[in-house]
Structure formats: C-alpha cells, structure tokens
Amino acid sequence: MASETLRHDWQDNDVLIFTHIPKTAGTSLAAMLDRQFLPEERLELRYFQHPHLFDEIQAESEHRLISTDEYKQAVKTGEDVDNKFGAYKFIRGHTPYYPPPFKTHRAVYVTILRDPKKRAYSDYKHIATYNDNPKHEVVKAMSYEEFLMEDDLQKDTRNPLTSFILNKSPKTEADFEQACRNLESMAWFGIVEHFDASMLLLHYVFSWPYNFESWHLNRARMQSPQPELSAKALKRLEALNHYDIKLYNYAVNLFHQRVQHMATELFAENKDLSEASLQLEAEMQVLSSEVQALKVQTEDLQGALQAKEQELQRTIERYSGMKGALRALYQAAIPLSARQRLYAIRDRNR
C-alpha cells in the first residue's frame, strides 16, 4: 500500500460513497453505515420502478432519496456536482465506482465483496422468490441449472463484482487490472465470508468506536447450502464469473494483508500499553503467590483453632464429669437428714 497507515484522515470536505453490489450483504452494511451520520448528511440512490410513488417513499424516509439514474447523469456530466452532492457526508446505493468530478470535495469509496459463486446463487433465489423482479415470472419455475444455462437471463449477471468496481463490463485483462487498482484505491472494502474481521477493519480505518455489537446479516440465509451442479453447469457458472472469481481471490489476499497491517499498527500504537500490561501481569502473579501463601497460613491457623476448640470441649466434658462425681460422693457421705438441716441453715442465711 502506498499509504503508511490504514487509517483514513477525515477531512471536512470528504464524502463517503458506498458502492452497494447486489446480494453482498450491502443492506446490512448500509444500515450500520447510516448510524455514523445524521439523517440530513445521508443521500440514498434508488431505482424507482414506479416514479409516481417517489413523494410517498421520500416522506417515509429519514434521509434524502434520488433516483440512481439522476445521480449517474449528474456525475457523468460533472455539472455542479459539488453543490448537488457536496452537502452530504454519506452517499449509498447500487452505483458503480465512478468518483464524481468534485472540485471542492473528495470522494471516499467503500464496498463489500462476496464469493461470486455464492452471490450468483443468492441472485437466482432472489429473482425466483420476489415477484417485483422483472425476471420473476420466467425464473420462478426454473431450476438453478436451467437459470444458468439461459443466455437471455444472464445478460445482466456476468461478472457483476468486476463490473461495479470497473464501471463497465470487463472484456480484457487490462480491464481486470484496472478493477484491481480501483479496489486498492478504496479506503476500505470488506469480504462477506470474513464479516467480523471486515467490521473490525472498517471501524479501525475510520476511527469509529466499535462496541462489539453483532452487525450480522441473516446468517441462515447468507449461508444457505449451494445446490449440486453438473460439470457442465459448474463450468458455465465459472465462465459467467471469470473475472469476478479472479477479482475475489485478489481481494481476499489484499484483505488479509490489510488485516495484518491493522494488527501491526495496533501493536505499535499500543506498545506502551502492552508493556504496562505485561508488568501488571507480573505483579498479579506475585500477588497471587502471596495470596496463596496467606491461604495456606490461614488453613494452618484454622486447623490449630479447631484443635484448641476440640481440647476445650474435652476439658468441659471432664469438668462436667468431675462435678457429677463430686455431687455423688457428697450425697453418699452425708445422710439425707443432715443435708436437709444444712439446706435449712443455708436458706435462713439468705
């Protein structure tokens, strides 16, 4: 990495842009990112199938909404983008990596990637399940293999990860290499299959407090088993995601490097704390030894005390026995009539 540190140096003119690739846990991530900004600082890009419902949808949203097409057109023309989008601190939506030509602001990109084969199956399940998808009626009766083999249904699903990162469909190795460079330039990217580590890295990069709350997506749904595919269908799946598979493998390797970099930085930043912790641990071991010694002494004292208590009890028992024996001797030595006269004298003297 060109930068000496992974931490992002926030500037007042920064605009965080989340490239949300479909079926990559982006909704869960977007909800978490939303919490880092005020509603008036957020802008969400949406595809509106029913534009006449925009006002109603906007009224129900905490933050501002605009159509994805409107955003793309504004970025493409570059017309007044600072005034249009510079007022926001966070922009998110299904929009590819295409930094707005800001003059007075800086675009800061983030995204999250998912295993292409798992993402492809999730995409099929979504289309087959939800009737708001234009392909639903055709796909709902199809098996996954049938879906993969149908050319007309795959026009928009070839290498979606690379297409979003590249801002066009990849055709050559040069395109793939550019996608890798675009990914490298992002302040942060995560990997769905390493979600916990991704969240730690995200909060570290942007210096956000991490409260260890589970930000997890629906694990059961995201980890649903993949169906068995024939050799022909598997080959087809890999062909449809040729560049995505390469990009994902590259991203996982780069991600591991960044996590290791984070660990190194954290150790360096907390070196004094680590040394103090080691010293404290040594002191605790000494105290633990002293406590153990006192415990042994206490056990010895308790044993001695118990022995004395037992000795006292035996003395009391002997005293009681002797007292009883003396009483018996007294009664045997003095006749009853004499004892009665002695008792009478005792009572008069009271």
From TrEMBL:
SUPFAM superfamilies: P-loop containing nucleoside triphosphate hydrolases (SSF52540)
Chief localization: Golgi
Top-rank taxon, per record: Bacteria
One Gene Ontology term, aspect cellular component: membrane
Biological processes annotated in GO: glycolipid biosynthetic process
Compartments where located: Golgi apparatus membrane
Keywords: Coiled coil, Glycoprotein, Golgi apparatus, Membrane, Signal-anchor, Transferase, Transmembrane, Transmembrane helix
Gene3D superfamilies: P-loop containing nucleotide triphosphate hydrolases
Coiled-coil regions listed: 263-318
GO molecular function: galactosylceramide sulfotransferase activity; heparan sulfate 6-sulfotransferase activity
Topology class, membrane: Single-pass type II membrane protein
Alphabetized InterPro entries for the sequence: Gal-3-0_sulfotransfrase, Heparan_SO4-6-sulfoTrfase, P-loop_NTPase
PANTHER family xref list: HEPARAN SULFATE 6-O-SULFOTRANSFERASE 3, HEPARAN-SULFATE 6-O-SULFOTRANSFERASE
Protein's name according to its UniProt entry: Sulfotransferase family 2 domain-containing protein
Organism for this UniProt entry: Phototrophicus methaneseepsis
